[in-house]
Amino acid sequence: MMAGRPACADETDAGPGLQRCINGACGRTYALRERIYVCPRCGETLEIDCHVGSRTDGRALREQWATRPALRTRTNDPRQASGVWRYLELLPFEADAPFVTLFEGNTPLFDAPRSAEYCGVAALRLKHQGYNPTGSFKDTGMAAAMTQALLTGARTAVCASTGNTAASLAAYAARAGLRAAILLPRGQVSSSKLAQSLDYGALVLEIDGNFDACMRLVAELGDDPSIYVANSINPFRIEGQKTVAFEILEQCHWRVPDHVVVPGGNLGNSTALGKGFSELLDLGLIDRLPKLSVIQADGAAPLARLFASLGGAVDRIPEKLEPVENPQTLATAIKIGAPVSWKKSLRAVLRSGGQIISVSEQELADAKAIIGRDSIGCEPASATTVAGIKKLVAARSISRQDDVVAVLTGHALKDPGYMIGYHEGTLSLPSASGEGSAFQGRFRNAAARVSADKAAILRSLERQR
Ligand code: F0G
Questions:
Q1: Pick the CATH number of 109-135+238-421 from 3.40.50.1100, 3.30.230.10, 3.40.50.10540, 3.20.20.140
Q2: What residues flank ligand 1, with Cβ below 6 Å?
Q3: pTM
Q4: Which of the four pLDDT bands, split at 50, 70 and 90, describes residue 461?
Q5: Which of 14, 178, 246, 385 has the greatest number of C-beta atoms within 10 Å?
């Protein structure tokens, strides 16, 4: 999956970084300008080395960032107003890059007392990436990827998606003046996300097949020199997304949380958070890593399965991940059986001492409703975090007094159909036979029909007390 014949880069190359193959036995490096997505020599994924290890100015950087608060209301300068570009010093771009931005990042870190009680921890904070411009965490990575697309002279950006990457790419490509083409699994994407992609003017191609099939097609299309691949296999996406780690630490006043918990689908997000925290450690800005834990849905949990099979004894990342052939979950965002970034994600979790587990549909749905009761809300995939924290507390991997941050990845309005189904009691779990079985949410709150009459309304209120 490459365009042209990329030349290797020298470790001593000046500039803001280089691309490196993650395979230790290969380790080949390439210049940033090379439009490649996997190592042309060995086929392994790539990551960007921003020369962070050689920097000694961590404290100065921290002070510099503090002078660039969220100034969205006062300036349109990306270096001030974007939660990605304010961390330019740790990103693989020169200061005169054509920064693409919709003023992403700078998202809130909420206290969530009801969710904390539900999980059995004293306190829980929710970092809500659904407050990004298109309503999901994808926007931070897309700001970086579209900027890189412009630098490489790309004309058309392409992605496979369960919906959020698509909406984000559609918006950011339009902002960058690029064409966007999107491959979606037909009938498996929430209408809100589909509507966004249409509205931002992308070419939307619905494929008969699941997300993994769309992703395989994108890998083939990446060979075409006219195409820029915007999935998180693209290491520039990870660079934009890693800034959430910096933001979390700033919001925690540089006190390292004990745990950071994220959903897992294609596994770009956990990769990015792990990279961000590691860079802060390398810079001396933190003295330990938060334990990074990834939560998948039971029916789409290839990495949780692998993790369990390793039994904690891991000195080497395994060569292969057994994909889930027919992934099933109502959290369509993470209905993924063959995640492309699994090695990088697993490496980050292992390095931090975190866990990778999965949760049932019922656990996920109830956790989502509790996040709603905290007046925060999120899309279904994001709620794996709270469901997972509850399980990790029960398993004593998280203790009651631990400082826990969960990353919510998408806005509640991304999937209103799921919410209505939960509260009306019509959600039906997917099963291997395709039959499906309904379940009752513990926190159901169905609408009641009432006659247009004051006394009837007062009687309804009385019943609620
Ligand atoms: N949460 C939401 C809301 C998502 O949209 C996704 C992934 C994830 C979690 C999982 O993140 O893939 O980095 O592990 N959505 C992709 C998409 C696959 O196409 O929108 P991940």
A1: 3.40.50.1100
A2: 136, 161-165, 232, 263-269, 333-334, 379, 381-382, 409-410
A3: 0.95
A4: very high
A5: 385
